[in-house]
């Protein structure tokens, strides 16, 4: 018989697992890993509202994508164009960034799998007599290691020609040059920290769903068990 068991700790672990997976996925897909040095506006590119030149803009560069501004002279309009600069994996600007993409993709795939499975932990608490929480916690720990490897390798690619074109001639491995780090990089770091927190917290979720109070509720014949 299937028992639906919902506890405060198990629900919090499930929500955190979903948030972490989405945060890492959004960061990986974003082009805001590096914020390039300011690009001056064209002398013909006049701001219609103020009548003067618009402020310089900062192009951004991601692992495989970029954002830059394109001016439409006939309409005096400026659009920001974002998209992948690499049409295939081999065109990613640096070998280090290719490795980063592989490690991050592996970690995100594991996190997304765990996030999907975590939704069903209310009904299924064990697989082949092993706690599903412990298995998912172990997978989250492995995913966290992949994410760390990717984030460590990423700055080693700052010396590639693509990064230099955005960050200036002083950019090199682990040196930003004229660039600054974008929100996507910080989001990836924050998601990695939360990944390990989820891995540790999964043990608390397992304890909560197998506590004596839960067993008492099961013995009383209840199918829906909600505990704080």
UniProtKB/TrEMBL annotation:
Alphabetical list of PANTHER family matching this protein: LHFPL TETRASPAN SUBFAMILY MEMBER 2 PROTEIN (PTHR12489:SF19), LIPOMA HMGIC FUSION PARTNER-LIKE PROTEIN (PTHR12489)
Origin superkingdom: Eukaryota
Gene transcribed to yield this protein: Lhfpl2
Source organism: Machaerirhynchus nigripectus
GO biological process: single fertilization
Subcellular location, principal: membrane
Membership in a protein family: Belongs to the LHFP family.
Transmembrane segments: 12-35, 96-120, 132-154, 183-203
UniProt keyword Membrane present: yes
InterPro entries: LHFPL
A Pfam family the protein falls into: L_HMGIC_fpl
Gene Ontology CC terms: membrane
Keywords tagged on the record: Fertilization, Membrane, Transmembrane, Transmembrane helix
Entry membrane topology: Multi-pass membrane protein
Protein name listed in UniProt: LHPL2 protein
Compartments where found: Membrane
């Amino acid at each position: 018989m299937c028992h639906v068991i919902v506890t405060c700790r198990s629900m919090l672990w499930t929500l955190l697992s979903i948030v972490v997976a989405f945060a890492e996925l959004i960061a990986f897909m974003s082009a805001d890993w590096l914020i390039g040095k300011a690009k001056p506006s064209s002398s013909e590119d006049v701001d219609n509202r103020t009548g003067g030149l618009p402020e310089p803009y900062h192009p951004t560069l991601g692992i495989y994508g970029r954002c830059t501004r394109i001016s439409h002279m006939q309409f005096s309009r400026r659009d920001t164009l974002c998209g992948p600069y690499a049409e295939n994996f081999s065109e990613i600007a640096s070998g280090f960034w290719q490795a980063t993409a592989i490690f991050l993709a592996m970690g995100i795939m594991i996190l997304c799998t765990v996030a999907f499975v975590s939704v069903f932990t209310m009904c299924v608490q064990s697989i082949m007599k092993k706690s599903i929480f412990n298995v998912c916690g172990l997978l989250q720990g492995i995913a966290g290691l992949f994410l760390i490897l990717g984030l460590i390798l990423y700055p080693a690619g700052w010396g590639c020609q693509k990064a230099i074109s955005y960050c200036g001639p002083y950019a090199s491995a682990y040196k930003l040059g004229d660039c600054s780090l974008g929100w996507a990089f910080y989001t990836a770091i924050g998601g990695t920290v939360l990944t390990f927190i989820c891995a540790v917290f999964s043990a608390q979720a397992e304890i909560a769903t197998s506590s004596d109070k839960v067993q008492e509720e099961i013995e009383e014949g209840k199918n829906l068990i909600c505990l704080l």
